Amino acid sequence: xxxxxxxxxxxxxxxxxxxxxxxxxxxxxxxxxxxxxxxxxxxxxxxxxxxxxxxxxxxxxxxxxxxxxxxxxxxxxxxxxxxxxxxxxxxxxxxxxxxxxxxxxxxxxxxxxxxxxxxxxxxxxxxxxxxxxxxxxxxxxxxxxxxxxxxxxxxxxxxxxxxxxxxxxxxxxxxxxxxxxxxxxxxxxxxxxxxxxxxxxxxxxxxxxxxxxxxxxxxxxxxxxxxxxxxxxxxxxxxxxxxxxxxxxxxxxxxxxxxxxxxxxxxxxxxxxxxxxxxxxxxxxxxxxxxxxxxxxxxxxxxxxxxxxxxxxxxxxxxxxxxxxxxxxxxxxxxxxxxxxxxxxxxxxxxxxxxxxxxxxxxxxxxxxxxxxxxxxxxxxxxxxxxxxxxxxxxxxxxxxxxxxxxxxxxxxxxxxxxxxxxxxxxxxxxxxxxxxxxxxxxxxxxxxxxxxxxxxxxxxxxxxxxxxxxxxxxxxxxxxxxxxxxxxxxxxxxxxxxxxxxxxxxxxxxxxxxxxxxxxxxxxxxxxxxxxxxxxxxxxxxxxxxxxxxxxxxxxxxxxxxxxxxxxxxxxxxxxxxxxxxxxxxxxxxxxxxxxxxxxxxxxxxxxxxxxxxxxxxxxxxxxxxxx
Length: 629
Known about the structure:
With about 625 residues, the protein is α/β, with parallel strands linked by helices. The protein has 2 domains: about 10-220, Alpha-Beta Complex (Spore Coat Polysaccharide Biosynthesis Protein SpsA, Chain A), CATH 3.90.550.10; about 235-629, Rossmann fold, CATH 3.40.50.720. The protein is built from 23 helices and 23 strands. Strands 1, 2, 3, 4, 5, 6, 7, 8, 9 and 10 form a 10-stranded mixed β-sheet that branches. A 4-stranded parallel β-sheet has the order 13-14-17-21, with helices on both faces. It has a 3-stranded mixed β-sheet with strand order 18-20-22. A hairpin with a 6-residue loop joins strand 6 and strand 7 (about 135). The relative contact order is 0.07.
């Protein structure tokens, strides 16, 4: 039997709602149509709706416990409020625009009754717009492998089990033991609660469809961007509350990376182009922040979520930067974005960019090459199929060349051999699996330009320093990353942080490793120049993108001198080199083509070093103050 007017219900159905009056009648009808189940009550929390939600509830034929928030507090708080206003020992959650499928409450309640050791049971669902064949919320293979099994944190994160509360029936005692819903989480509070339930109790998954997720304009594209970013927040909360989840989080997200993690174009470049009148779109999958969580490190300068930064830019300029959440190893998703934007140019920054990361072990090497090479191949095919006249601007690396004992040319070298002469690609001597992936990219791009008449610019970039461009400087919420760790960080950033905290500057080996460097302001200008001066049809060209060369020991000396002027006691130590590389070598690279296009370089100056050191000092002081409060 079913109903909502019983004096002592066994199940509380909590429904948060905000401006869903048009869907609410069908939703409530599906709930009250539940039969062959224990008595239940319905608690609807109106999260400050401005539509006819209250009138819909008042007109309902069944008794509903109606609670209203006077201001919008978000779905997590609305669910928690509903739990607090309910009485039943079993908790079910349902969204105000979804449909509860027949038998949900009865089947899940019978399962818990037959398994008193189980604290919560989660199930499957179906999704799809009205009038279209539905697909399952949990992919069939994953659902079949988990059916009837106890679920752990590693299963949830590695397999991508969404843990929608609309599919669950939870014992109140376990809900409270887990700490309830984290109302400070804007997104993925259900996933985070599911993980905590799996830590403190027993959670089982059943491959039964118990609700239908109704797709409509208000819950699709706008949220896809935000949902992906919310995952990083979930991982951080789990690390804080349950340290035993740390290993599971890192391994899970790494193993799922080939499905989830791809790509981003540099936000600083998007702003630079948008500020100059270009219509800019961003394709991202937010992998970079999850790598931070995996490695246990983070940028020195806190970065706002992408949707926040896009909103800030819109408020400042009135310009809308369109965003796509997509995986570049997923050709269909990538092609959809290309077709939707019909681009004149694609600026491709979307690769795993750290040599040390690619050298951690076999899995990181395989991931780096799959991620980078397959993603670029997919982009090449998408351009051929959909926009063959588009200009591909690809971020390469000076590391493709290695450290040869001859001058490095810009992509090509004229060779005379046995009386014959030709212009050939400059020999490549990459020093890591990451650099090898870039070499593969270069050859693939050059090949596609030759056989498909695509046009492409390969920017072999040096090491970038600095954090501020003219656009980023307009609002603190637009601040760029400052990576200083030993995987994604640069030597210059690491030296600045070490100087700020009184740690000796650690120079690897002899310190003669010499590389090309450039200011972040020159990075965005170089890419703009490449976009504004496209190659001809079928042309593949290479620009060496740097402005000056330094040895590591020379950088350390510059930081020491700048630190002395700021009153810092800076020492320089040499340490055994953890990398397999030449520590003393010849290095002289040509870099004239961007200068010929009009680049006016910003050189590494005392004032810039002062700025970097001051950023490091301020953040170090903030961290110290936070640790003492």
